[in-house]
Design brief:
single chain; alpha+beta; Tetrahydropterin Synthase, Chain A; 2 domains; 3 helices; 4 strands; 17% strand; elongated
């Protein structure tokens, strides 16, 4: 009986230990997620309210024009991955320089979407991960957009959804 009594406390400690470990892992993951998400939206170091939009990878201040913001329907592409199939779903919105551009954007929406699909399908998985890579993707999309509609037609690209699977 004394052997059974000695076994009982060991069994009771195991579930508590597993619960504590699970809580630490969940809390750590939540803290890491908060840090990453908060870090992506914080102003770049050394830039306050008067920071220049061209410094800090465009993260200190967003260059939103006085014109409208137009959003495209979701785009789903296969990523350029030879090992397997991965998909990217993106919803893109563009801040236009002024109202005059809106009519041309509406007229060329299928062409613009085609260019975005071409650009996004060239990406591989690694090029979609992390804030710096997303800024690079936004730059590439804005460049394509402005090549079609003229320099400075679009002032900023917003990725309102960006999901990789």
């Amino acid at each position: 009986m004394s052997e059974a009594a000695a076994e009982a406390p060991k069994k009771g400690k195991k579930p508590i230990l597993l619960i504590v470990i699970a809580l630490v892992v969940v809390a750590g993951g939540g803290g890491a997620a908060f840090f990453v998400l908060k870090g992506g939206s914080a102003p770049a170091a050394g830039h306050g309210e008067g920071g220049d939009a061209k410094h800090g990878e465009g993260e200190a201040k967003v260059a939103v024009g006085k014109g409208p913001i137009t959003e495209f329907p979701p785009i789903i592409v296969n990523l350029n991955e030879p090992e397997g199939t991965r998909y990217l779903k993106a919803v893109i919105a563009i801040s236009l320089s002024d109202e005059k551009v809106q009519g041309e954007v509406d007229r060329l929406k299928p062409v613009i979407k085609d260019q975005f699909i071409r650009e996004l399908s060239e990406l591989n998985f690694r090029q979609t991960m992390g804030a710096k890579n997303k800024v690079a993707v936004k730059r590439r999309l804005l460049k394509r957009f402005n090549e079609l509609l003229g320099p400075d037609a679009g002032t900023e690209i917003f990725l309102t959804e960006f999901i990789v699977q």
